[in-house]
Amino acid sequence: MKAHKNPSPYQVWGIISVTSPQQQPVTFAAQAIPFDEFLASGKLPGGYLASEYIAQQFVERLVHYVLSVPAGSYTMAQLSHLLEQLDPRAQVFFFKRLKETSPESLKDFAPLYYGFMNEFHSLLFT
Q: What is the pTM of this model?
């Protein structure tokens, strides 16, 4: 009796569909965010943060990015310029998440924090 030969992994069995499934849009949570490019250019693409939820997700991931990249990967001026493009609630959320995620790192971001909080002083006490 002959031994059964395994089919080649490249051999196709059956009918091949000629229609391709439609490409589903990739959710924001599944997309890689090029923070290094955004920080370097200082610009967010128009309409990039289309909803409050997406802005919050962006901020969450930005906090993790700034805490995880090596020192010198970005400057506080670059980060400030990027944060200035966010909605004021998202800016406050950034510092809140930064404090919750890494309270000891807040001292590194103090000048940036106080600069942004000065802007909100009148809003905080009205």
A: 0.71
